[in-house]
Amino acid sequence: MKKKIDLLELTLIIFMIVSLISIAIAASFGKTAFYIQLVISGGAVAFGVIRLLSARRDSRKFLEYIGGRLGAVKSDTLIRFPLPVAVTSESGEIIWMNGLFHDGVMKGEECFGKNVSEILENYDREKAFNPGGCEVSCRGGFYSVVSTTSSELGERLFALYFIDRTNERKTEKLYDESRPAVLSITLDNLEELFANCKESEKSWIKGEVEKLFEDFVAENHAFLKRNSSSKYVAIVEEKYLRKMEEERFSILDRARKILTSEEQPVTLSIGVARGEFSLDKLNDFSLQALEMALGRGGDQAAVRTVNGYEFYGGFAKGVEKRTKVKTRVIGAALCDLIDSSSNVLVMGHRFGDLDCIGAAVGMANAVRDMEKDCHIVVNRETCLARPLIDKIEKAGTLELFIAPDEAKEKVNDDTLLIVVDTHIRNLLESQDIYASCRNVVVIDHHRRMVGSIDNAVIFYHEPYASSASEMVTELLQYFDSRCKVKKSDAEALLAGIMLDTKSFSMRAGVRTFEAAAYLRKMGADTVKVKELFSGSLQSYQHRSKIVSTAEIYRGCAVSFAKSYDDIGLVAPQAADELLTINGVASSVVMYKTPVGVSFSARSLGGMNVQVIMEALGGGGHQTMAGAQIPDITPQEAKEKLLAAIDDYYEKAAGHADA
Question: What whole-number distance in Å separates Cα of residue 485 and Cα of residue 516?
Fold first, then answer.
């Protein structure tokens, strides 16, 4: 009805403008024509005004008439009703309201004839008929709207009852924003930074760090307590934690700007716990989140959520830990655990590579030297290191490798399962064997991911190590004196180190070369090791085709490979080779699998491919990562990859600007 009146007003205005133009034109023909046109136009305009006023009067009478004929929703009752009430037509037009609606909900604003959906945000007529009603907002207030309906005057009418929830929402918002969150903070590399610093420089770094935390407390109105020289705990309100998340924990970037004279940055790791828990629970959860952040290489924040963890940062390279005290302690504890076990199974991840099988061989033969029954669980058909398995068996080590089905028969209550080169349950060669073993040991170097093995008796996790083979090599040096590393074992371990370091060009630290030197001392022949990396002519041709079809997108070489028989072995090799192209900082090779699309990603360290692969549901290292997406087409997979690269650069730019 209001729309009809508005249309009449618009028509009258247009008619008046046309009349003025026609009067002006008539004046040019003489006074007679001018007066005749003036009288005609004036009469027509007067008639239009009278009709408009009459329409407004009729509209008001109609609304009053409707108000008197509301039937099931009697107007007298609704006027005295203690809640705001409005009545709408079938089309949603407001045709009646009581005073509480006009003054309370509408704040005195006229709304007769307006559509209710234009006034109420999030209004849903169907939901309004539910017992709980429909949650809406209007003029800064929040209401639950419950609706009833009846048919009057041949038209279906709707009565809307408004229950004021404004104070509840304000209280809810205040509660939500003021809930405490606990942050466990640690300085990742304080000991390494101070190792070569003068006392004056140490004092300056400490002062800058203290100023950093003072600013943090002032900005976020936080409570901060230092537990040691490098560990802090902070309590902040939820609203300030959300601000930190929006800024992607800018304190990480500000810390990184504190440099020593050798241009080494200060880095922080932060574990965050939030939610409706007691403070002691939040403190425990924040420590778990901190452990997750450190397990991923540090220089990042891990926020514990209901569905797992969210990560911020992680753009800096990890710092190698030079002390071997932890290795010695782990080695002694592992020897005691092996001695108390009836038998041992060693298992890696699916599609085991040279690092996985090499670490397993070194560990299994050491256990056998301790006169314990030990086998390596591996699926030969899917293993990518079959040449190494053949080499070990030719060297005289028989019945070392067994299939998962055969291994399951050897599991008993005292069986020890040693997992190498992975810590993710879903990536294990056999999850059934893992579930059957009560005693589990994990030895892995990959950055920590959600879904990790959480019941390990010993969880030896060193994300700064180059490979699992390096970690096993160090452990063997602290094993029982009965354990002797044979030449074939040394070559298997060296092959694993060379694979993950790309022949000592990536992620090779001081301890990496020390481990390699020890293996060389044990008789490892580098020529024999190099032969394990040799492939067939057909594999070389496949690799060349993958490289030749690559496209460069924002410094990342992207190639989609055909599903060759040896694609699982060729794809990572092609990804490595793509890094030799000028202007390429990272590479990703995609290939189709029976269940979806797999990704093999590599980088030279400038780009963290782990972050990109995590966006696709995978993970790995800063320079070596992978992922697999089920039930997806190659084109969709490529679009997801490019979007993940774009998102990575946006986040990296945000850190650079901070």
Answer: 13
